[in-house]
Amino acid sequence: MYKADNISLYAHLKNVPLFNSLTNEQLKILFEAGITKNFPKERIIVYQHDPGDTFYIVVTGKVKITLLNEDGKEIVLSLLKEGDFFGEMSLLDNETRSASAVAIENTTLFLLTRIQFHKLIATYSDILTKIFKEICARLRHANEKIESLAFLDVYGRTIRLLQQLAHDQGEKTKNGIEISHAPTHKEIASMVGASRETITRIIKVLKENHTLVSYKGRKVILREHTNKLFI
Ligand code: CMP
């Protein structure tokens, strides 16, 4: 790896929320312990049910956490972006990978081995706390997903998902709440358990009733106060 790449990786790691309490010296040691790896778009990074020995941090790009069945149907559990991590579960419980992880853009990851990961959480208790907090947040999301699969129809689930995205990553603009890295129609379909065609129809309705201001590529603008209308 070139020096310039090293500098930019270091800058990225400095911005990873998990590491923001580390001093420069501690970060340098961590940086030298791990390796970076590039994954082209669509490349599978980990397979569900495989044994797991690596912890991953997204340096740049995007990763989907997904469950695939034998017919090729998938349900997307989560979309991870720069600064997010995955692969901690099999390192903590010694079970196989709970889901697959796939690069959905050209993605660079920072990798730590099982031993390095355990050393990290044994040395820095606040990093362990942050990992537990994130696991709690993921469990809460999973509970909401179970609730909406059981109690809401596809229309309601789509709105619920857009509200969650707006809450987690939305930014207030003069036009409404903007989500700049939204899932595509196909990804939304896999997240709410519907076909892409159904989602395209629902998005059309949401535009017509002005719940959605626009939905272009990965950029979505939701009307403000959408929450009050539906929940
Ligand atoms: P692991 O089981 O080692 O490998 C797959 C990873 O996907 C897992 O660790 C978590 O990091 C991540 N993962 C599994 N389930 C979810 C979920 N519901 N939401 C977000 N991430 C998840």
Low-confidence stretches: none
Calculate Rg over CA atoms: 19 Å
Helix content: 40-55%
Q: Given the helix and strand composition, which structural class is it?
A: alpha+beta
User: Main beta sheet, described?
Assistant: 4 strands, antiparallel
Task: Please count the beta strands (DSSP E, at least 2 residues each).
Answer: 12
The neighbouring-strand order within the major sheet is 1-8-3-6
The number of distinct helices, counting runs of at least 4 residues, comes to: 9
Assembly type of the shown chains?
single chain
H and E string:
HHEEEEEEHEEHHHEEHHEEH
Spatial shape:
globular
- In whole angstroms, the N-to-C terminal distance is 50 Å
Mean pLDDT score: 90
Distinct small molecules bound, one entry per kind: adenosine-3',5'-cyclic-monophosphate
Q: Which helices and strands occur, and which strands form pairs?
A:
Layout: H1 3-14, H2 24-33, E1 35-39, E2 44-46, E3 54-60, E4 63-68, E5 74-80, E6 85-86, H3 88-93, E7 100-103, E8 107-113, H4 114-123, H5 125-151, H6 154-169, E9 171-173, E10 176-179, H7 185-192, H8 196-208, E11 212-216, E12 219-222, H9 226-230
Helix pairs in contact: 1-2, 4-5, 6-7, 7-8
The structure holds adenosine-3',5'-cyclic-monophosphate.
In short:
46% of the residues lie in helices and 25% in strands. The chain is α+β, with helices and mostly antiparallel strands and 231 residues long. Adenosine-3',5'-cyclic-monophosphate is lined by residues 46, 52, 65, 77-78, 86-90, 97-99, 101, 138, 142.
